[in-house]
TrEMBL record:
<dbReference type="GO" id="GO:0005737">
    <property type="term" value="C:cytoplasm"/>
</dbReference>
<keyword id="KW-0548">Nucleotidyltransferase</keyword>
<feature type="binding site">
    <location>
        <begin position="9"/>
        <end position="10"/>
    </location>
    <ligand>
        <name>ATP</name>
    </ligand>
</feature>
<feature type="binding site">
    <location>
        <position position="9"/>
    </location>
    <ligand>
        <name>substrate</name>
    </ligand>
</feature>
<protein>
    <recommendedName>
        <fullName>Phosphopantetheine adenylyltransferase</fullName>
        <ecNumber>2.7.7.3</ecNumber>
    </recommendedName>
</protein>
<feature type="binding site">
    <location>
        <position position="73"/>
    </location>
    <ligand>
        <name>substrate</name>
    </ligand>
</feature>
<dbReference type="Pfam" id="PF01467">
    <property type="entry name" value="CTP_transf_like"/>
</dbReference>
<feature type="binding site">
    <location>
        <position position="87"/>
    </location>
    <ligand>
        <name>substrate</name>
    </ligand>
</feature>
<feature type="binding site">
    <location>
        <begin position="88"/>
        <end position="90"/>
    </location>
    <ligand>
        <name>ATP</name>
    </ligand>
</feature>
<dbReference type="GO" id="GO:0015937">
    <property type="term" value="P:coenzyme A biosynthetic process"/>
</dbReference>
<dbReference type="InterPro" id="IPR004821">
    <property type="entry name" value="Cyt_trans-like"/>
</dbReference>
<feature type="binding site">
    <location>
        <position position="41"/>
    </location>
    <ligand>
        <name>substrate</name>
    </ligand>
</feature>
<comment type="pathway">
    <text>Cofactor biosynthesis; coenzyme A biosynthesis; CoA from (R)-pantothenate: step 4/5.</text>
</comment>
<comment type="subunit">
    <text>Homohexamer.</text>
</comment>
<feature type="binding site">
    <location>
        <position position="17"/>
    </location>
    <ligand>
        <name>ATP</name>
    </ligand>
</feature>
<feature type="site" description="Transition state stabilizer">
    <location>
        <position position="17"/>
    </location>
</feature>
<keyword id="KW-0067">ATP-binding</keyword>
């Protein structure tokens, strides 16, 4: 079974995330969307809300599971018996950042990282942009799946 973990804080999940996950579905038998927690970070949405947003968005996709984790992502991958990490790349800065992490993860654990370029129409979307729209009462409806708009 080809199993991938797509880690992130998903605060909130965006249409960019959804695009990457949807396009990765034919590549894997299972994709675990793993919501990581970081005590240093201030989140706009609770863990429960973020998990619900993702579960509702992928309610009709049996290959997608949603889980919470703490600690090193590679340790979580080992627990889940996942041989792949899934990451989306929006721009060259994402690539440089993710490349270093991917090399370290492969060296330490043997886990491969699969990169998918974001679609042109979602490549500018980030959770931080969405949060800024929400904080300032802007229209963010085109940036997120329906579950987040409620």
């Amino acid at each position: 079974m080809k199993k991938a973990v797509f880690p992130g804080s998903f605060d909130p999940i965006t249409n960019g995330h959804v695009d990457v996950i949807t396009r990765a579905l034919p590549l894997f038998d299972e994709i675990i969307i793993a919501i990581g927690t970081n005590a240093e970070k201030k989140y706009m949405f609770s863990l429960e809300e973020r998990k619900r947003f993702i579960e509702e968005t992928f309610a009709n996709e049996p290959k997608v599971k949603v889980d919470l984790y703490q600690g090193l992502t590679i340790d979580y991958c080992k627990e889940q018996k996942a041989d792949f990490l899934l990451r989306g790349l929006r721009n060259p800065a994402d690539f440089e950042f993710e490349k270093a992490i991917a090399h370290a993860n492969r060296l330490v654990s043997g886990i491969e990282t699969v990169f998918l370029l974001t679609a042109v129409d979602t490549s500018f979307i980030s959770s931080s942009i969405v949060r800024d729209f929400i904080r300032n009462n802007g229209d963010y409806s085109l940036l997120v799946p329906k579950a987040v708009k409620k």
